[in-house]
Amino acid sequence: MSSRIEQILFIEPPHELKFKGPFTEPVQTIMSLKNPSDKKVAFKIKTTAPKRYCVRPNCGELAPKEKAEISVILQPFDYDANERNKHKFLVQTVVIDPVSDYGEDGKTFQWRDVEEGRIMDSKLKCSFEMPTVEQLLESKNIHDDTTAVLETNTETELQKAATEVKELREEETILRQENMKLKEELLQLQYEIKNQQSQKRSVGGSQHLDMQNRNANIALMVGVAIVVALLGIIAGKYVF
């Protein structure tokens, strides 16, 4: 590792990023950056093969005592033993001056304005490791076992889902039957209420007619009594 001034960050791994094949799929490794100082530090990461790697995040800032994990993903490629140590990474850092290093918004760090003498460099090489035949076979067995477990779990989940669907359909049928029964009971109740109301109207009419007849009889009796009284008065006059 070489640098203009001593690197302020702790970088892990410090010298080499290892990628384990086979390289028919993306391969990821992690680079850790830790700021042990009491100052805010900016960083950015470069590589000699930018089209072959995806680095996230490839730049940022670390507060005092803060740590960041950088994901470095190697894209699939045809392995070439002669190429395994050609790729390199460069980690550049600088202690931030809060007065002069930010843009007009006061938030965006401006690398282009940093003096070259303030920048700290750390270089890491890349190494590609192809697995042995035994490792490939072991990986295949693990993959096959995992696939078998997944298939078994999938079949179990499908059976469980089918059972749940069947139970839900049975519950739906029961609910439909109960709903029909409730509708029938409601119609019967409405019919009984109408009959009761009709009977009340009929009874009320009869009672009203009886009352009218009773009142008429009383009026007739009163009239007869008045006539008798008048006749008595008239008869008394003639007798005396």
UniProtKB/TrEMBL annotation:
Lipid bilayer topology: Single-pass type IV membrane protein
MF term (GO), any: FFAT motif binding
Protein localization: Membrane
Main location: membrane
Coiled-coil region list: 151-199
Transmembrane segments: 218-239
Key word Transmembrane present: yes
SUPFAM superfamilies documented for this protein: PapD-like
Record InterPro entries: Ig-like_fold (IPR013783), MSP_dom (IPR000535), PapD-like_sf (IPR008962), VAP (IPR016763)
Biological process according to GO: endoplasmic reticulum membrane organization; endoplasmic reticulum-plasma membrane tethering
Keywords: Coiled coil, Membrane, Transmembrane, Transmembrane helix
GO cellular component: endoplasmic reticulum membrane; plasma membrane
Superkingdom as given in the UniProt entry: Eukaryota
UniProt similarity note: Belongs to the VAMP-associated protein (VAP) (TC 9.B.17) family.
Protein name, per record: ACYPI000185 protein
Taxonomic placement: Eukaryota, Metazoa, Ecdysozoa, Arthropoda, Hexapoda
Gene: ACYPI000185
